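C-alpha cells help. One example:
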Amino acid sequence: MAASTISEFHTAVGQFINYRIALEEQESERRLYLAVPLDIYKRFFKYPFIQTVIHHNQIPLIIYDVEKEAIAQWIN
C-alpha cells in the first residue's frame, strides 16, 4: 500500500463518518456513499484491512469509471 493512498483513505473515511453524523441530524432519510474511482477500487480496496474498515464502519460505496464517466458499481 502506498503511503499517500492509505493517507487519502484515512482522510476520506474520517470525512465520511463526520458527514454521515451531520446528515443524520439534518436529513436522516438520506443515505451517504463514499465515491471511489474504479482503478483505485481494483488496486487498493482488495486489501483485507481496507475491507475490514469499510465493513466495520458500514460505508456504502459508489465505484465510478473515470474514463467512461459512469458508475460501475454500487456496494451497500
The longest strand covers residues 70-75. Residues 3-26 form the longest helix (24 residues).
